[in-house]
Structures are given as C-alpha cells and as structure tokens.
C-alpha cells in the first residue's frame, strides 16, 4: 500500500471516529414525537440533544430535557427540582407555596398536588417534568418524578424543518 493511501485512510478513519464519539457522548439528533410539548415544539421536529450540558451545568427549572423511560425517550420541561413542594391550583403553579409564572403556557393546567403521587416533596436526585400541552402529555403526573440519571440531556435547538429552526425556551 502506498504511503499516501495509508495517510488518507488514517485521516478518513479519524474523521469517522470523531463523528462517532461526538454522537455518542456530546450531541445527537432527537425527534419530537407527539403533541405533548405543543406549542413550544411540534410533532416531527428534529432537535439537537446536548448530552454534555448536565455534566457541566445543573438542571434548571423550565429547561427542555430528554428523559429516558422504560418504554421510550420523551421530551418534557423541568418544572420541579429536588426537595421542592409542587402544586397547581386554579391554573397557577406553586413551588414551595410561591406562585411561579409559566410564560410559555397557552392552555390551562388542571389542579394537581405532588402529594397525590405519595410524595411530600420531590425526592432527592429527582425532577418533576411536564409537557407544555398539559391536556395531552404523559409526564410526571403519570410516571412520577424522574431521576437525574434518566435525563439524557437538554434539547433547546430545533434543526428541522428549516422554517422552524432556532432555539426554544
């Protein structure tokens, strides 16, 4: 084999290896399935899942995250953090009995209290996640608080369709 051919194979092999490593450990595409995050996200949109984000930063309230459940990966919004109490009353979110505004919401949220799931507060190392389309979302009201280890990363950048591309909050 010629020296130039070996050099080219090493270069192409390195590029392929770098792409595989980036996809495994840093970013990967993820598809929005269903309408549970409507109107922030729409069914079929392709987003970038940032797997590195929560290795470098803390998960914050209102982050859009990808959660790995037993059945599939779901995209939801973080509403409650570890150690907090949480309830909805008259379409208003209360965290630790303080009213919290949710400017991204378009529809009403039915009354709910975390005590109905058997918790006084969100357990340590767990988060309470909800879809923005509360009437059509399988979220922590059904599956319970999710463990930090179930959150595979943040998803705030829509890539496709190009007409919808951009950051979501």
Q: Your description of this structure?
A:
With 169 residues, the chain is of the alpha+beta class. The chain has three helices and twelve strands, in the order H-E-E-H-E-E-E-E-E-E-E-H-E-E-E. Strands 1, 2, 3, 4, 9, 10, 11 and 12 form an eight-stranded antiparallel sheet that branches. It has a four-stranded antiparallel sheet with strand order 7-6-5-8, with no helix packed on it. A hairpin with a 5-residue loop joins strand 11 (151-160) and strand 12. The protein is elongated. The N and C termini lie far apart (53 Å).
Key words describing this protein structure:
alpha+beta, 33% strand, 18% helix, 169 residues, elongated
Secondary structure blueprint with pairings:
Blueprint: H1 3-25, E1 27-31, E2 46-50, H2 53-56, E3 64-68, E4 73-80, E5 86-89, E6 92-95, E7 98-100, E8 112-113, E9 126-130, H3 140-143, E10 146-147, E11 151-160, E12 166-167
Antiparallel strand pairs: 1-2, 2-11, 3-4, 3-11, 4-9, 5-6, 5-8, 6-7, 9-10, 11-12
């Amino acid at each position: 084999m010629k020296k130039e051919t070996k050099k080219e194979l090493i270069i192409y092999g390195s590029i392929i290896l770098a792409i595989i490593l980036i996809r495994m450990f840093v970013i990967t595409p993820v598809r929005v399935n269903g309408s549970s995050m409507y109107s922030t996200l729409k069914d079929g949109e392709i987003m970038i899942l940032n797997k590195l984000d929560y290795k470098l930063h803390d998960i914050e309230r209102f982050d859009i995250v990808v959660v790995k459940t037993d059945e599939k990966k779901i995209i939801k919004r973080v509403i409650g953090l570890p150690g907090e109490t949480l309830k909805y009353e008259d379409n208003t979110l209360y965290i630790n009995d303080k009213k919290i505004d949710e400017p991204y919401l378009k529809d009403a949220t039915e009354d709910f209290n975390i005590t109905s799931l058997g918790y006084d507060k969100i357990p340590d190392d767990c988060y309470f996640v909800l879809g923005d389309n509360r009437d059509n979302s399988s979220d922590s009201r059904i599956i319970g608080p999710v463990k930090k280890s179930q959150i595979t990363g943040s998803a705030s950048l829509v890539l496709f369709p190009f007409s919808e591309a951009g950051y979501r909050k």
